[in-house]
Specification:
The structure holds two protein chains of two kinds.
Chain A (H helix, E strand, L loop, with lengths): L4 H7 L4 H8 L3 H8 L7 H11 L3 H4 L3 H8 L1
Helix pairs in contact in A: 2-3
Chain B lengths: L5 H30 L7 H6 L2 H17 L3 H30 L12 H20 L5
Classes of the chains: A mainly alpha, B mainly alpha.
């Protein structure tokens, strides 16, 4: 799933390891989410949103909205 | 979070204990069957004894899946275990048919289904590495 995680992380000068520690997941998990290889569960998506103090839809791009825009 | 999660550390500790038990029980059973006195009915539990730590490894694997809190690592391992199960069933099914048509000798030469499942875990790790870029634990 497309997302702005890398941008938000870069704004805070956090490494993937730093973000992983804050979310209590591995650096590999952060990398997989950032690159869109893995879609986080809803609880993890909420944890990410709360950490960055943004609504989920400002961080993750809805796949259906993205495909409707493409049409 | 460190690279190795607490769940992985617990799994590796359990694995080491179980494999140590397996080696001890295997050598003990082989020695007693070859050099020990007539075992009678005790031959049955003695023959089964080395299988128990292997069954314990299956338990340890399942505990790891339950205890791992990192959902991505858990997903990687679920993929690995599914590939291992598919590989193990494929090999043993083919082997049974080859035996049914007398193309291979009876018996398995000491390679039980568990061996193929563990080989399958390795293959699953390689598949994860090529498809997702992470092999998992």
């Amino acid at each position: 799933m497309e997302n702005r995680l890398r941008v938000l992380r870069a704004e805070r000068n956090w490494s993937q390891q730093d973000l992983g520690e804050r979310l209590e997941v591995s650096r590999q998990s952060v990398n997989a989410i950032e690159t869109g290889k893995y879609d986080p569960s809803l609880p993890l998506a909420f944890r990410i949103a709360e950490l960055f103090d943004r609504p989920i839809e400002e961080i993750f791009v809805s796949p259906s909205r993205r495909s409707s825009k493409a049409i | 979070m460190s690279q190795t999660s607490p769940a992985v550390r617990r799994y590796l500790k359990r694995l080491m204990i179980l494999m140590s038990c397996y080696l001890f029980l295997l050598f003990a059973a082989v020695w007693l069957f070859r050099h020990g006195p007539a075992l009678g009915v005790l031959a049955w539990p003695l023959a089964v004894a080395p299988a128990l730590p292997i069954i314990g490894v299956f338990w340890a694997v399942m505990r790891w899946l339950i205890e791992e809190r990192d959902e991505y690592q858990r997903m990687l391992f679920v993929r690995q275990a599914l590939i291992a199960t598919g590989f193990c069933l494929t090999v043993t099914t083919i082997w049974e048919f080859l035996q049914s048509f007398d193309l291979v000798p009876p018996g398995n030469g000491g390679f039980g289904a568990a061996v193929f499942w563990f080989i399958g875990l390795g293959i699953g790790g390689i598949v994860n590495k090529f498809t997702l870029g992470d092999a998992g634990c």
